[in-house]
Design goal:
Blueprint (H helix, E strand, L loop, with lengths): L1 H64 L23 H7 L3 E7 L6 H8 L9 E7 L5 H14 L4 E4 L7 H10 L6 E4 L10 H5 L8 E10 L6 H23 L11 E4 H6 L10 H11 L3 E12 L5 H27 L5 H11 L4 H20 L9 H4 L3 H17 L7 H21 L1 H13 L32 H23 L2 H25 L2
Helix pairs in contact: 1-7, 1-12, 1-14, 3-4, 7-14, 7-15, 9-10, 10-11, 10-16, 12-16, 12-17, 14-15, 15-18, 17-18
Length: 539
C-alpha cells in the first residue's frame, strides 16, 4: 500500500516537474530570437553610425569648398518664386493623423491629477488629438477629474470627461463605450498610473504607415522600481516580458500581446476583430489574439518606454496577479479552439498555445510543491525508494538553466537596462533566487485564479489600486484603497509556510539533500507572502 502511494506521489510530482521544465525550455526559443534581433540591431546601428560619420565628412568637405558655411537642415524650403513651400492640409493630416487618447479609470484619487497634467503635455499638433477621460469613478476622483478637465479646457486643450451611468463590462466596457465618442483614426490607451513622455505619439504613430500594423505596444518602465524588495522583484519579471518575450515573439513571427496600456490601436483593427469584449478579465490579450487572427500585426517597440507605478502593497500585487492569471485562463479557454481551427502554421499554433497556457504553469508549480511533502515522508520514514532515483532529477536542471539565462539577458544584457553591468549582475545574483521564492509563494493564490478561469466562474474586475509611490519617502499606510481583510487563501498560505518549514527540518534530520533547498525556498516564499499580506492589510 505504501509503495503504491509512493509511486502515486512520485508520478504526480514528476509529471508536474516535467510540465514546468518543458515550459521553461520552450522559453529558450524566445531567447534565441531575441538575441538574433539584438545582433541585427547592433549591426544596423553600427552601419548607421558609420554612414553618418561618412556623411559628416562629405559635408565638411563641401563646406570647405564654399567658404566653411553649411545650410541648416531645418531651413524652410524655398520655392522658385521665393515663397515658402508650405505643407498642404492633406499632407498635414497625413503626417499627423488624428489620435484619441483614452484614459479608462476607476477611483484613482491619488494619481488622476498627475495623469491628466501629464497627458496635456503631448508634443503633437493640438488640433490633431483629443483626450477622453473614461471615468467610471464612484468616489471623489470624479470631482478631481471634473476640475482638472475644466481647467485644461480653459487653456484650449481638447479634453473631455466621459461618464457612464453603469459600470458594465468594467475596463473593456469603458473602452467599448468610449470608442463611440472617439474621432481618432488611432486610439492611444493609458492606465491611470502611466506617464508617457511628450514625444510618445510622434514616435509611435509613424509605424502605422505599414498597413499590416494594427497595434503598437511600448515597453513599461518602472517609476518606483527601487522603492522596496517587492517592487524590485516585480520589475525583474516584467523586464523579461517587455524585452525577451515580446521581441522574441515578434522576431519569431509569433503572436504578441497588447498589454492593456502604453500602446496605440488602429481603430479599424479593433472593429475588424469584433471590438472589446468583457467576457474575460484580460480583454487586452483576448483582443490581441482576435486581431492577429484577422491578419494584423502587433509592433513592439523596446526602445520606447512609458514610466508607470508598480504595486508596493502585497494585497494589491495579489489582486493584479489574480486578474492576470484568471483572465489568462479564461482567454485560453475561449481562444485555444479558435487558434487550432485557424489557418496558422503549426509553429504559430504551438507558440500561441504556450502563450495562452502561461498562467497554468503556476498550477503545476503548486501541485509539484504539495506532492513533494508526502513524497519526502514516504521515501525517508517508510523507506519506500522504488523508482526514486536522485540522478534522474538532475536532468530537470536544464529548465532552470534556461529560465535563468532568460532572466539574466533581460535584466543585465538588454538594451532597456540603464545601470552599470557590475551593478546589474550583483542585483541579479541576489534577487533572482528571491524572485523564484516569491513566485513559488504566489503559486497557491494563482492556482485558485487559474482553476476559476478554466471552470468559467465569473468574478468582478478588481483593479490594482495606485498610491502615487515613487521613492522610499512615500508611504501608502492609511490609503483608502488598501485591502483591510484577508481571504481564506492567505491563511492557507500561512499554513503552507509551516508545512514546508517542517519539511525543511525533516530533510535536514534525514540528510535528504534533493528537497532541502527547494523546501527552504518554498518556506521563504509562502511565509513572506503571508506575512506581507497580513502586514499591509493592517497598514
Amino acid at each position: 500500500m505504501m509503495s503504491a502511494l509512493a509511486f502515486l506521489f512520485l508520478g504526480v510530482y514528476t509529471l508536474s516537474l516535467t510540465y514546468v521544465t518543458f515550459y521553461c525550455l520552450s522559453q529558450f526559443n524566445l531567447l534565441f530570437y531575441y538575441k538574433r534581433f539584438d545582433w541585427r540591431r547592433k549591426k544596423e546601428e553600427f552601419q548607421a553610425k558609420f554612414a553618418a560619420q561618412a556623411q559628416a565628412q562629405m559635408v565638411g568637405v563641401a563646406a570647405a569648398q564654399v567658404g566653411g558655411k553649411t545650410l541648416s537642415t531645418n531651413a524652410p524650403i524655398i520655392a522658385a518664386d521665393g515663397s515658402l513651400n508650405l505643407m498642404s492640409q492633406e499632407e498635414y493630416e497625413k503626417a499627423f493623423p488624428f489620435v484619441t487618447i483614452q484614459l479608462p479609470l476607476y477611483n484613482e484619487k491619488y494619481v488622476v491629477e498627475r495623469l491628466i497634467d501629464n497627458m496635456v503635455l503631448m508634443d503633437y499638433p493640438h488640433d490633431r488629438f483629443e483626450i477622453h477621460v473614461l471615468d467610471d469613478s464612484t468616489d471623489e476622483t470624479q470631482d478631481l477629474v471634473r476640475a482638472k478637465v475644466a481647467y485644461h479646457q480653459a487653456q484650449g486643450v481638447n479634453i473631455e470627461q466621459i461618464r457612464r451611468k453603469e459600470r458594465k463590462g468594467y475596463k473593456a466596457g469603458a473602452l467599448k463605450d468610449g470608442t463611440e465618442f472617439a474621432k481618432g483614426e488611432f486610439l492611444a490607451i493609458f492606465d491611470a498610473d502611466f506617464l508617457p513622455r511628450p514625444d510618445f505619439l510622434k514616435k509611435t504613430i509613424p509605424h502605422f504607415e505599414d498597413p499590416s500594423v494594427g497595434v503598437v505596444q511600448t515597453r513599461w518602465e518602472h517609476i518606483n522600481e527601487d522603492y522596496s524588495l517587492i517592487t524590485r522583484l516585480q520589475a525583474l519579471q516584467l523586464n523579461v516580458h517587455f524585452t525577451v518575450e515580446q521581441v522574441g515573439r515578434m522576431e519569431g513571427k509569433h503572436f504578441l500581446q497588447f498589454n492593456g496600456t502604453a500602446g496605440v490601436w488602429r481603430r479599424k483593427t479593433i472593429e475588424d476583430a469584433g471590438g472589446w469584449e468583457a467576457d474575460t478579465l484580460t480583454e487586452d490579450l483576448d483582443l490581441s489574439i482576435r486581431s492577429q487572427l484577422k491578419g494584423y500585426r502587433i509592433k513592439f517597440l523596446e526602445d520606447i518606454s512609458v514610466p508607470a507605478e508598480l504595486p508596493a502593497d502585497m494585497n494589491a500585487l495579489k489582486a493584479q496577479q489574480f486578474r492576470w492569471m484568471k483572465g489568462g485562463a479564461e482567454t485560453a479557454r475561449k481562444m485555444l479552439p479558435i487558434v487550432w481551427n485557424s489557418n496558422m502554421n503549426l509553429m504559430q499554433k504551438l507558440n500561441s498555445t504556450l502563450h495562452l497556457l502561461a498562467s497554468t504553469v503556476f498550477m503545476f508549480v503548486f501541485v509539484m510543491a504539495a506532492s513533494s511533502i508526502p513524497l519526502l515522508y514516504l521515501v525517508n520514514v517508510l523507506s519506500v525508494r522504488h523508482g526514486f532515483d536522485k540522478d534522474f532529477f538532475t536532468w530537470y536542471l536544464l529548465g532552470m538553466l534556461s529560465i535563468t539565462l532568460m532572466y539574466y539577458v533581460a535584466n543585465v544584457q538588454s538594451k532597456a537596462r540603464r545601470s552599470t553591468t557590475f551593478k546589474s549582475v550583483i542585483r541579479f545574483i541576489t534577487h533572482f533566487p528571491l524572485f523564484l521564492a516569491m513566485s513559488m509563494g504566489l503559486s497557491l493564490h494563482n492556482t485558485i485564479a487559474v482553476i476559476e478561469g478554466w471552470r468559467g466562474k465569473k468574478s468582478p474586475f478588481v483593479r490594482t489600486p495606485k498610491f502615487n509611490i515613487k521613492d522610499g519617502k512615500d508611504q501608502f499606510s492609511n490609503n483608502k484603497y488598501l485591502k483591510k481583510s484577508l481571504s481564506w487563501g492567505t491563511y492557507l498560505e500561512g499554513f503552507m509556510a509551516l508545512m514546508f518549514l517542517v519539511a525543511v527540518v525533516w530533510s535536514a534530520y534525514w540528510g535528504e539533500t534533493i528537497f532541502i533547498v527547494y523546501h527552504v525556498m518554498m518556506t521563504i516564499g509562502f511565509s513572506s507572502i503571508f506575512l506581507l499580506s497580513w502586514k499591509h492589510a493592517r497598514a
